[in-house]
Specification:
alpha+beta; eight-stranded antiparallel sheet; 16% strand; Beta-lactamase
Length: 444
Protein backbone atom coordinates (compact mmCIF):
# COMPACT_ATOMS: atom_id res chain seq x y z
CA UNK A 1 0.00 0.00 0.00
CA UNK A 2 2.90 2.40 0.67
CA UNK A 3 4.09 2.03 -2.90
CA UNK A 4 0.59 2.53 -4.29
CA UNK A 5 0.24 5.81 -2.38
CA UNK A 6 3.67 6.91 -3.57
CA UNK A 7 2.89 6.20 -7.20
CA UNK A 8 -0.60 7.65 -7.01
CA UNK A 9 1.20 10.94 -6.38
CA UNK A 10 4.05 10.38 -8.80
CA UNK A 11 2.59 9.00 -11.97
CA UNK A 12 0.38 11.87 -13.11
CA UNK A 13 3.63 13.84 -13.24
CA UNK A 14 5.57 11.12 -15.03
CA UNK A 15 8.12 12.57 -17.48
CA UNK A 16 7.46 9.81 -20.03
CA UNK A 17 5.86 10.50 -23.32
CA UNK A 18 4.12 8.11 -24.69
CA UNK A 19 12.39 -13.35 -27.40
CA UNK A 20 12.62 -15.92 -26.50
CA UNK A 21 10.01 -18.01 -24.67
CA UNK A 22 11.85 -21.05 -23.39
CA UNK A 23 10.41 -24.45 -22.86
CA UNK A 24 11.18 -25.55 -19.35
CA UNK A 25 9.84 -29.08 -19.28
CA UNK A 26 13.43 -30.18 -18.80
CA UNK A 27 13.74 -27.86 -15.83
CA UNK A 28 10.99 -29.71 -14.09
CA UNK A 29 12.61 -33.03 -14.75
CA UNK A 30 16.29 -32.51 -14.00
CA UNK A 31 18.16 -29.75 -12.22
CA UNK A 32 21.12 -30.53 -14.46
CA UNK A 33 19.12 -29.24 -17.41
CA UNK A 34 18.54 -25.84 -15.83
CA UNK A 35 19.56 -22.63 -17.62
CA UNK A 36 23.00 -21.13 -17.11
CA UNK A 37 23.57 -20.10 -13.52
CA UNK A 38 20.78 -22.20 -12.00
CA UNK A 39 21.97 -24.61 -9.32
CA UNK A 40 20.06 -27.43 -7.70
CA UNK A 41 18.83 -27.08 -4.13
CA UNK A 42 17.15 -29.28 -1.58
CA UNK A 43 13.94 -28.43 0.24
CA UNK A 44 10.19 -28.96 0.14
CA UNK A 45 8.31 -28.61 -3.12
CA UNK A 46 5.61 -25.97 -3.48
CA UNK A 47 2.64 -26.90 -5.63
CA UNK A 48 -0.74 -25.43 -6.41
CA UNK A 49 -2.82 -28.02 -4.60
CA UNK A 50 -5.10 -26.19 -2.19
CA UNK A 51 -4.49 -27.53 1.31
CA UNK A 52 -6.73 -27.51 4.40
CA UNK A 53 -6.14 -24.41 6.49
CA UNK A 54 -5.19 -26.52 9.50
CA UNK A 55 -2.25 -28.00 7.59
CA UNK A 56 -0.69 -24.53 7.64
CA UNK A 57 -1.71 -23.51 11.13
CA UNK A 58 -4.62 -21.41 9.91
CA UNK A 59 -8.37 -21.64 10.40
CA UNK A 60 -11.09 -22.16 7.80
CA UNK A 61 -13.16 -19.52 9.55
CA UNK A 62 -10.23 -17.14 9.26
CA UNK A 63 -9.95 -17.77 5.54
CA UNK A 64 -13.67 -17.14 5.15
CA UNK A 65 -13.00 -13.82 6.83
CA UNK A 66 -10.40 -13.16 4.14
CA UNK A 67 -13.07 -13.78 1.54
CA UNK A 68 -15.47 -11.50 3.35
CA UNK A 69 -12.90 -8.71 3.66
CA UNK A 70 -12.33 -8.68 -0.09
CA UNK A 71 -16.00 -9.15 -0.97
CA UNK A 72 -17.02 -6.28 1.27
CA UNK A 73 -14.91 -3.91 -0.80
CA UNK A 74 -16.31 -5.31 -4.04
CA UNK A 75 -19.90 -4.95 -2.83
CA UNK A 76 -19.20 -1.38 -1.73
CA UNK A 77 -17.76 -0.49 -5.14
CA UNK A 78 -14.33 0.24 -3.71
CA UNK A 79 -12.69 -2.30 -6.03
CA UNK A 80 -14.08 -4.14 -9.03
CA UNK A 81 -12.35 -7.45 -8.44
CA UNK A 82 -9.20 -9.12 -7.19
CA UNK A 83 -7.10 -12.26 -7.44
CA UNK A 84 -5.39 -13.24 -4.21
CA UNK A 85 -3.32 -16.08 -2.79
CA UNK A 86 -1.96 -17.04 0.62
CA UNK A 87 0.66 -19.67 1.42
CA UNK A 88 2.01 -20.66 4.83
CA UNK A 89 4.57 -23.24 5.82
CA UNK A 90 5.04 -24.02 2.14
CA UNK A 91 1.38 -24.88 1.59
CA UNK A 92 -1.16 -23.03 -0.51
CA UNK A 93 -4.28 -22.39 1.56
CA UNK A 94 -6.01 -19.64 -0.38
CA UNK A 95 -6.27 -18.89 -4.10
CA UNK A 96 -9.35 -17.03 -5.26
CA UNK A 97 -10.68 -14.72 -7.93
CA UNK A 98 -13.45 -12.46 -6.68
CA UNK A 99 -15.58 -9.80 -8.30
CA UNK A 100 -15.33 -8.63 -11.87
CA UNK A 101 -12.55 -8.40 -14.39
CA UNK A 102 -14.83 -5.98 -16.21
CA UNK A 103 -17.21 -4.21 -13.82
CA UNK A 104 -19.10 -2.57 -16.66
CA UNK A 105 -20.34 -5.74 -18.37
CA UNK A 106 -19.96 -7.86 -15.19
CA UNK A 107 -17.42 -10.28 -16.66
CA UNK A 108 -16.12 -12.30 -13.69
CA UNK A 109 -12.53 -11.94 -12.62
CA UNK A 110 -10.54 -15.05 -13.56
CA UNK A 111 -7.70 -16.63 -11.57
CA UNK A 112 -5.35 -16.53 -14.54
CA UNK A 113 -5.96 -12.83 -15.23
CA UNK A 114 -2.83 -11.02 -16.34
CA UNK A 115 -2.03 -7.73 -14.59
CA UNK A 116 0.27 -4.83 -15.34
CA UNK A 117 2.30 -5.10 -12.15
CA UNK A 118 4.14 -1.80 -12.61
CA UNK A 119 6.53 -1.27 -9.68
CA UNK A 120 6.06 -4.84 -8.50
CA UNK A 121 8.67 -5.30 -11.25
CA UNK A 122 11.29 -3.65 -9.05
CA UNK A 123 12.00 -6.56 -6.66
CA UNK A 124 12.26 -8.87 -9.67
CA UNK A 125 14.89 -6.60 -11.22
CA UNK A 126 16.71 -6.54 -7.87
CA UNK A 127 16.78 -10.34 -7.88
CA UNK A 128 18.23 -10.27 -11.41
CA UNK A 129 21.09 -8.09 -10.15
CA UNK A 130 21.59 -10.45 -7.20
CA UNK A 131 21.88 -13.47 -9.50
CA UNK A 132 24.89 -11.78 -11.09
CA UNK A 133 26.29 -10.92 -7.66
CA UNK A 134 25.80 -14.58 -6.73
CA UNK A 135 27.81 -15.65 -9.77
CA UNK A 136 30.63 -13.18 -9.00
CA UNK A 137 29.97 -11.17 -12.16
CA UNK A 138 29.38 -7.86 -10.43
CA UNK A 139 29.31 -6.22 -7.02
CA UNK A 140 26.66 -3.99 -5.51
CA UNK A 141 29.49 -1.53 -4.87
CA UNK A 142 30.58 -1.39 -8.50
CA UNK A 143 30.37 2.05 -10.01
CA UNK A 144 27.58 2.39 -12.56
CA UNK A 145 30.11 4.06 -14.88
CA UNK A 146 32.09 0.80 -14.98
CA UNK A 147 29.32 -0.53 -17.23
CA UNK A 148 27.82 2.70 -18.62
CA UNK A 149 30.59 5.29 -19.08
CA UNK A 150 28.18 8.22 -19.48
CA UNK A 151 27.47 7.98 -15.73
CA UNK A 152 31.02 9.08 -14.87
CA UNK A 153 31.60 12.43 -13.18
CA UNK A 154 28.04 12.96 -11.92
CA UNK A 155 26.71 16.38 -10.94
CA UNK A 156 24.05 17.39 -8.43
CA UNK A 157 21.39 20.09 -8.47
CA UNK A 158 21.23 22.33 -5.40
CA UNK A 159 18.47 24.82 -4.75
CA UNK A 160 16.65 26.59 -1.95
CA UNK A 161 13.49 24.80 -0.73
CA UNK A 162 10.47 25.75 -2.80
CA UNK A 163 12.45 27.25 -5.66
CA UNK A 164 10.79 26.93 -9.07
CA UNK A 165 13.25 29.02 -11.09
CA UNK A 166 15.79 26.98 -13.09
CA UNK A 167 18.14 29.97 -13.11
CA UNK A 168 18.46 29.69 -9.33
CA UNK A 169 19.56 26.06 -9.39
CA UNK A 170 23.25 25.58 -8.68
CA UNK A 171 25.00 22.55 -10.16
CA UNK A 172 27.86 21.07 -8.15
CA UNK A 173 30.08 17.99 -8.53
CA UNK A 174 28.86 14.84 -6.79
CA UNK A 175 30.91 13.73 -3.79
CA UNK A 176 31.13 10.24 -5.26
CA UNK A 177 29.97 8.21 -8.23
CA UNK A 178 26.79 6.19 -8.26
CA UNK A 179 27.10 2.50 -7.40
CA UNK A 180 24.69 -0.29 -8.30
CA UNK A 181 23.33 -0.43 -4.75
CA UNK A 182 22.11 3.17 -5.14
CA UNK A 183 19.94 2.15 -8.08
CA UNK A 184 18.11 -0.53 -6.10
CA UNK A 185 17.56 1.55 -2.97
CA UNK A 186 16.27 4.82 -4.45
CA UNK A 187 19.29 6.65 -3.09
CA UNK A 188 20.79 7.52 -6.49
CA UNK A 189 19.02 10.80 -7.24
CA UNK A 190 18.25 9.60 -10.78
CA UNK A 191 14.92 10.96 -12.05
CA UNK A 192 13.48 10.92 -8.57
CA UNK A 193 10.92 13.02 -6.80
CA UNK A 194 11.97 15.64 -4.29
CA UNK A 195 11.31 15.99 -0.60
CA UNK A 196 7.80 14.97 0.46
CA UNK A 197 7.20 13.80 -3.10
CA UNK A 198 7.28 17.33 -4.52
CA UNK A 199 9.38 18.24 -7.59
CA UNK A 200 13.07 18.53 -6.78
CA UNK A 201 15.74 20.86 -8.17
CA UNK A 202 17.03 18.44 -10.81
CA UNK A 203 13.61 18.39 -12.44
CA UNK A 204 13.99 22.10 -13.12
CA UNK A 205 17.13 21.68 -15.21
CA UNK A 206 16.98 18.18 -16.74
CA UNK A 207 15.33 18.01 -20.13
CA UNK A 208 15.68 14.36 -21.06
CA UNK A 209 12.59 12.44 -22.11
CA UNK A 210 12.27 8.87 -23.29
CA UNK A 211 11.13 8.98 -26.89
CA UNK A 212 8.74 6.57 -28.62
CA UNK A 213 10.57 3.52 -29.93
CA UNK A 214 13.56 3.88 -27.62
CA UNK A 215 15.26 0.89 -26.02
CA UNK A 216 17.40 0.45 -22.93
CA UNK A 217 20.43 0.68 -25.20
CA UNK A 218 19.42 4.05 -26.61
CA UNK A 219 17.88 5.71 -23.55
CA UNK A 220 19.88 4.74 -20.48
CA UNK A 221 23.25 6.10 -21.70
CA UNK A 222 21.47 9.40 -22.43
CA UNK A 223 20.42 9.88 -18.82
CA UNK A 224 23.94 9.34 -17.53
CA UNK A 225 24.90 13.03 -17.82
CA UNK A 226 21.62 14.18 -16.24
CA UNK A 227 21.92 16.18 -13.05
CA UNK A 228 21.13 14.23 -9.89
CA UNK A 229 18.49 15.27 -7.39
CA UNK A 230 20.88 14.97 -4.41
CA UNK A 231 24.28 13.65 -3.42
CA UNK A 232 24.43 9.86 -3.99
CA UNK A 233 23.46 7.90 -0.90
CA UNK A 234 22.43 10.95 1.11
CA UNK A 235 18.66 10.63 0.75
CA UNK A 236 15.88 8.22 -0.14
CA UNK A 237 13.77 9.58 -2.97
CA UNK A 238 11.65 7.33 -5.14
CA UNK A 239 12.70 6.83 -8.75
CA UNK A 240 9.58 5.58 -10.56
CA UNK A 241 11.40 4.01 -13.51
CA UNK A 242 14.85 5.24 -14.52
CA UNK A 243 17.01 3.92 -11.66
CA UNK A 244 15.70 0.36 -11.92
CA UNK A 245 15.72 0.58 -15.70
CA UNK A 246 19.41 1.42 -15.43
CA UNK A 247 19.88 -1.62 -13.21
CA UNK A 248 18.19 -3.86 -15.76
CA UNK A 249 20.37 -2.43 -18.51
CA UNK A 250 23.41 -3.41 -16.43
CA UNK A 251 21.96 -6.94 -16.20
CA UNK A 252 21.81 -6.96 -19.99
CA UNK A 253 25.37 -5.70 -20.39
CA UNK A 254 26.93 -8.04 -17.83
CA UNK A 255 25.00 -11.14 -18.87
CA UNK A 256 25.52 -10.54 -22.58
CA UNK A 257 21.85 -11.37 -23.22
CA UNK A 258 18.88 -9.12 -23.98
CA UNK A 259 17.23 -8.14 -20.72
CA UNK A 260 13.96 -9.97 -21.41
CA UNK A 261 15.81 -13.12 -22.46
CA UNK A 262 17.91 -13.11 -19.29
CA UNK A 263 14.85 -12.62 -17.12
CA UNK A 264 13.05 -15.46 -18.86
CA UNK A 265 15.97 -17.87 -18.62
CA UNK A 266 17.22 -16.99 -15.17
CA UNK A 267 14.08 -16.07 -13.23
CA UNK A 268 10.73 -16.61 -14.94
CA UNK A 269 11.31 -20.14 -16.26
CA UNK A 270 13.00 -21.59 -13.15
CA UNK A 271 10.25 -20.13 -10.98
CA UNK A 272 7.53 -21.53 -13.26
CA UNK A 273 6.25 -18.04 -13.90
CA UNK A 274 4.46 -19.24 -16.99
CA UNK A 275 2.44 -16.08 -17.66
CA UNK A 276 5.06 -13.40 -16.96
CA UNK A 277 6.23 -11.19 -19.81
CA UNK A 278 7.32 -7.74 -20.87
CA UNK A 279 5.29 -8.26 -24.05
CA UNK A 280 2.31 -10.58 -23.63
CA UNK A 281 1.91 -13.00 -26.54
CA UNK A 282 -1.11 -12.43 -28.77
CA UNK A 283 -2.69 -15.72 -27.65
CA UNK A 284 -2.79 -14.49 -24.04
CA UNK A 285 -3.68 -10.85 -24.48
CA UNK A 286 -7.39 -11.47 -23.91
CA UNK A 287 -6.49 -12.32 -20.31
CA UNK A 288 -5.00 -8.88 -19.60
CA UNK A 289 -7.26 -7.04 -17.17
CA UNK A 290 -8.24 -3.52 -18.13
CA UNK A 291 -7.39 -0.73 -15.71
CA UNK A 292 -10.44 0.81 -14.06
CA UNK A 293 -11.31 3.94 -12.16
CA UNK A 294 -14.54 4.76 -10.36
CA UNK A 295 -16.25 8.05 -9.67
CA UNK A 296 -19.69 8.61 -8.24
CA UNK A 297 -20.38 4.90 -8.42
CA UNK A 298 -19.62 4.67 -12.13
CA UNK A 299 -16.80 2.54 -13.57
CA UNK A 300 -14.69 3.45 -16.56
CA UNK A 301 -11.65 1.90 -18.22
CA UNK A 302 -8.55 4.11 -18.26
CA UNK A 303 -5.38 4.03 -20.34
CA UNK A 304 -2.12 2.45 -19.24
CA UNK A 305 0.35 5.27 -18.52
CA UNK A 306 3.10 3.38 -20.38
CA UNK A 307 0.95 3.03 -23.50
CA UNK A 308 -0.62 0.00 -25.19
CA UNK A 309 2.51 -1.78 -26.43
CA UNK A 310 4.16 -3.72 -27.90
CA UNK A 311 7.17 -2.48 -25.95
CA UNK A 312 10.69 -2.17 -27.34
CA UNK A 313 11.74 -0.61 -24.05
CA UNK A 314 12.10 -3.33 -21.40
CA UNK A 315 11.52 -1.51 -18.14
CA UNK A 316 13.06 -2.85 -14.95
CA UNK A 317 11.09 -0.35 -12.92
CA UNK A 318 7.62 -1.11 -14.21
CA UNK A 319 7.44 -3.24 -17.34
CA UNK A 320 6.26 -6.67 -16.19
CA UNK A 321 2.88 -8.25 -16.89
CA UNK A 322 2.09 -11.21 -14.64
CA UNK A 323 -0.44 -13.17 -12.60
CA UNK A 324 -1.09 -13.77 -8.93
CA UNK A 325 0.02 -17.38 -9.51
CA UNK A 326 3.41 -16.35 -10.87
CA UNK A 327 4.09 -13.77 -8.20
CA UNK A 328 3.27 -16.28 -5.49
CA UNK A 329 5.98 -18.52 -6.94
CA UNK A 330 8.36 -15.56 -6.80
CA UNK A 331 7.46 -14.86 -3.16
CA UNK A 332 7.85 -18.54 -2.22
CA UNK A 333 11.37 -18.38 -3.64
CA UNK A 334 12.10 -15.40 -1.40
CA UNK A 335 10.57 -17.12 1.62
CA UNK A 336 12.78 -20.14 0.86
CA UNK A 337 15.88 -17.92 0.89
CA UNK A 338 16.53 -18.03 -2.83
CA UNK A 339 15.31 -21.51 -3.84
CA UNK A 340 12.20 -22.83 -5.53
CA UNK A 341 11.31 -26.47 -6.11
CA UNK A 342 14.87 -27.74 -6.27
CA UNK A 343 16.27 -24.79 -8.21
CA UNK A 344 18.51 -22.27 -6.54
CA UNK A 345 18.11 -18.78 -7.95
CA UNK A 346 20.68 -17.39 -5.51
CA UNK A 347 22.46 -18.55 -2.37
CA UNK A 348 20.93 -17.76 1.03
CA UNK A 349 23.72 -15.33 1.87
CA UNK A 350 23.08 -13.45 -1.38
CA UNK A 351 19.34 -13.49 -0.81
CA UNK A 352 19.93 -12.00 2.67
CA UNK A 353 21.31 -8.86 1.04
CA UNK A 354 17.87 -8.12 -0.38
CA UNK A 355 15.93 -7.79 2.85
CA UNK A 356 18.53 -6.06 5.00
CA UNK A 357 17.87 -2.39 5.70
CA UNK A 358 20.70 -0.58 3.95
CA UNK A 359 19.38 2.98 4.10
CA UNK A 360 19.17 3.48 7.87
CA UNK A 361 16.32 5.87 8.65
CA UNK A 362 16.28 7.49 5.19
CA UNK A 363 13.15 5.63 4.06
CA UNK A 364 11.27 6.00 7.35
CA UNK A 365 12.06 9.71 7.42
CA UNK A 366 11.23 10.35 3.77
CA UNK A 367 7.45 10.57 4.11
CA UNK A 368 6.65 9.49 7.69
CA UNK A 369 2.85 9.28 7.39
CA UNK A 370 3.29 6.25 5.14
CA UNK A 371 6.92 5.16 5.54
CA UNK A 372 7.44 5.18 9.30
CA UNK A 373 8.25 1.84 10.88
CA UNK A 374 9.99 0.62 7.73
CA UNK A 375 13.50 0.27 6.39
CA UNK A 376 14.47 -0.37 2.79
CA UNK A 377 16.55 -3.09 1.20
CA UNK A 378 17.09 -3.93 -2.47
CA UNK A 379 13.80 -3.14 -4.16
CA UNK A 380 11.71 -3.88 -1.06
CA UNK A 381 10.54 -2.14 2.09
CA UNK A 382 11.13 -3.96 5.35
CA UNK A 383 8.92 -3.82 8.43
CA UNK A 384 11.11 -2.75 11.35
CA UNK A 385 8.55 -1.83 13.99
CA UNK A 386 4.96 -2.74 14.78
CA UNK A 387 3.59 0.66 13.72
CA UNK A 388 4.32 0.09 10.01
CA UNK A 389 1.36 1.07 7.85
CA UNK A 390 0.26 -2.45 6.87
CA UNK A 391 0.72 -3.93 10.33
CA UNK A 392 3.18 -6.51 9.02
CA UNK A 393 5.32 -8.60 11.36
CA UNK A 394 8.88 -7.45 12.01
CA UNK A 395 11.12 -8.51 9.13
CA UNK A 396 8.31 -8.76 6.57
CA UNK A 397 9.29 -7.37 3.18
CA UNK A 398 7.81 -6.71 -0.23
CA UNK A 399 6.73 -4.04 -2.68
CA UNK A 400 3.79 -3.30 -4.93
CA UNK A 401 2.65 -1.51 -8.04
CA UNK A 402 0.78 1.62 -9.04
CA UNK A 403 -2.38 -0.23 -10.07
CA UNK A 404 -2.73 -2.18 -6.84
CA UNK A 405 -0.58 -5.29 -7.20
CA UNK A 406 0.83 -6.16 -3.78
CA UNK A 407 2.99 -9.11 -2.76
CA UNK A 408 5.08 -9.75 0.31
CA UNK A 409 6.59 -12.35 2.64
CA UNK A 410 6.67 -12.55 6.42
CA UNK A 411 9.51 -14.86 7.47
CA UNK A 412 8.52 -14.68 11.14
CA UNK A 413 5.11 -16.14 10.25
CA UNK A 414 6.34 -18.33 7.35
CA UNK A 415 3.70 -16.53 5.28
CA UNK A 416 3.54 -15.29 1.69
CA UNK A 417 0.71 -13.24 0.26
CA UNK A 418 -0.36 -11.85 -3.11
CA UNK A 419 -3.22 -9.44 -3.71
CA UNK A 420 -3.74 -8.16 -7.25
CA UNK A 421 -6.19 -5.52 -8.42
CA UNK A 422 -5.99 -3.21 -11.45
CA UNK A 423 -7.16 0.30 -10.65
CA UNK A 424 -5.81 3.80 -11.11
CA UNK A 425 -5.66 5.01 -8.45
CA UNK A 426 -5.95 1.88 -6.32
CA UNK A 427 -7.73 2.28 -2.97
CA UNK A 428 -5.25 2.11 -0.11
CA UNK A 429 -7.62 0.05 2.02
CA UNK A 430 -7.84 -2.91 -0.35
CA UNK A 431 -4.54 -4.63 0.29
CA UNK A 432 -4.40 -3.64 3.97
CA UNK A 433 -7.75 -5.30 4.71
CA UNK A 434 -6.64 -8.44 2.89
CA UNK A 435 -3.32 -8.58 4.72
CA UNK A 436 -4.82 -8.08 8.15
CA UNK A 437 -7.42 -10.77 7.52
CA UNK A 438 -4.72 -13.16 6.33
CA UNK A 439 -2.67 -12.69 9.49
CA UNK A 440 -5.77 -12.95 11.68
CA UNK A 441 -6.45 -16.40 10.17
CA UNK A 442 -3.26 -17.77 11.76
CA UNK A 443 -4.03 -19.94 14.80
CA UNK A 444 -0.80 -21.82 15.36
Amino acid sequence: MIEQRIEEVLEPASPLSRRSILSFGALLALGACAPRGIATASGPRFDWTLRPAADAGMSEAGLEAVRAAVQKQIDAGVINGAVSAIARRGKLVWYEAQGFGNPIDKTPMRKDAIFRVMSSSKPVTAVAILTLVDEGKLSLDDKVSKYIPSFANPRVAVSAPGNTDPAKVKIVPATRELVIRDLLTHTSGITSVGDKMMPGPASLVNRIERLPGETLESYIPRIGPAVLQFQPGSKFSYSPLDALDTALYIVQLVSGRPADVYMQERIFAPLEMVDTYYNVPAAKQSRIVDIYATKDGKWRAVDHILGPGPYKYISGGGGIFSTAHDFMNFEIMLLNRGSFNGRRIMRPETHALMHRNVVGSLFADWFPPITKGNGFGLGVRIAESADNLNGRSIGAYGWGGAYGTESWVEPALDLAGVFFIQMNPPPASASVNFEKAARAAIVG
